Amino acid sequence: DAVRYLAVNAERLGGMADASLKDLGLCCSGAAETATKKTFVAVPPATPAIEAFARMCEEHVSGVGVLDDRGSLIANLSVSDVRYIQPEHFGILGLPVAEFLALLHGTSYAGFSGATPSEFASNPFFAKMNEGGFRRTGPYLVTATPETRFRELLRSFLTHGVHRVYVCEGGKPVDVVTLTDALRATCEAAETGAEAGTA
Fold it and tell me: Is 7 in contact with 159 (CB distance < 8 Å)?
């Protein structure tokens, strides 16, 4: 709701609305890493889903990107993907994360791989995944660039109903911006503005 309010009232953010993600320190560019932000966390498609969730716990993040064999972003795995799994389905957590997501979302691997197919796309498992999955929605993989304006980021959150937007540069992911990151940046900007106003 807070992000929806900000997206609808972006003009009230002043210059922040048209500042880029890079200028706001919301993303890293290339190999650089800011002191306040964790690096982008990703796993290969063959990683067992349970290990990908364990990696989230280790890194204290709520989502990880899935990269194909060329390093391109093909999917997003988030903690919300667990809530659709009943005890009788726990076995699917042993599947490679790409297969797990295809099953969960009722899609084919091609739904995640985009224009560049991965070596795993030929797996016959994915050929039958268009019949419907547990969630029957998505997958929603939303990307931006370091030059994306903050108002566009807010609009992406609102339009697609996602909790994170992956920042890509040269076709490769370099960072991720979450709802929490966007709200934190807004609060910090408001505090800085208030301090400047009282000085």
Answer: no
Contact at 8 Å (CB) between 28 and 174? Answer: yes
Contact 168, 174 (CB under 8 A): yes
Give the pLDDT confidence of 33-48 residue by residue, as tens digits.
Answer: 443 455 689 999 889 9
Beta pairing class for 42-43 and 63-67: parallel
The amino acid occupying position 50 is I
Q: How far, CA to CA in Å, does 174 sit from each of 120, 143, 177, 192?
A: 23, 11, 10, 27
Distances (CA, A) of 123 to 2, 15, 44, 117: 42, 49, 15, 12
d(CA 109, CA 75) in angstroms, rounded, equals 10
Low-confidence stretches of the chain (pLDDT < 50) are 31-36, 111-120, 123-139, 196-199
Q: How many CA atoms lie within 13 A of 133 on its CB side?
A: 24
| Cα separation, 151 vs 138, whole angstroms | 23
